[in-house]
Amino acid sequence: MKLSRRATTATALTTLALAGTLAATAPASAATTKGTAKSAAAATYNGVCGTGYTVIDSTPVGNAGTVFLTWNEDTGKNCAVTIRTTAGNRINMSVTLDALGNSDEPAVDSGTYTRYAGPVYADGRESCVAWGGTIGNASASDSGHCS
User: Fold this and answer.
1) For residues 126 and 86, is the Cβ–Cβ distance under 8 A?
2) 77-87, pLDDT tens digit by residue?
């Protein structure tokens, strides 16, 4: 009986070792494809707010894209833009930017777009800002950056 247990244990360990070897020697292209797909999934800021604007925050909109908040020190303005991860057919999108505490209405751009909604601008001096966006059925918002 001890011999059977040892044989079973040895067989099990050999199987695990072989499985580990196969996993370690899987084609590099399979691992690279997964890594590339994940890296490519992130939307990147496209500079649409103009010169002098620097990204100071961002909020993911599900897996569909990102709302970027930018700041221009020279003008004291914030800018927001919602950017899709991958451009495609027209889809309902929006971006909203609100300088909290002032009497101005929030800046909003909404419509059907292939790549991005916005840019929208708001005075950011002596206030906090709230921003958000939608892409299809996904939405997100955030606030902060008080000056």
Assistant:
1) no
2) 999 999 999 99
Q: Of all helices (H) and strands (E), which one includes residue 6? A: helix 2-24
Distance CA 68, CA 117 (A): 11
CA distances to 45, 59, 72, 115, 139 from 111, rounded to whole Å, are 19, 20, 26, 11, 14
pTM for this one? 0.72
- 84: nearest Cα among 54, 44, 37: 44
- Dump pLDDT digits (tens) for 2-37: 444 333 333 333 333 333 333 333 333 333 333 333
Residue with tokens 């370690």: 24
CATH number of 43-144: 2.60.40
> What are the domain boundaries of the chain?
2-39, 43-144
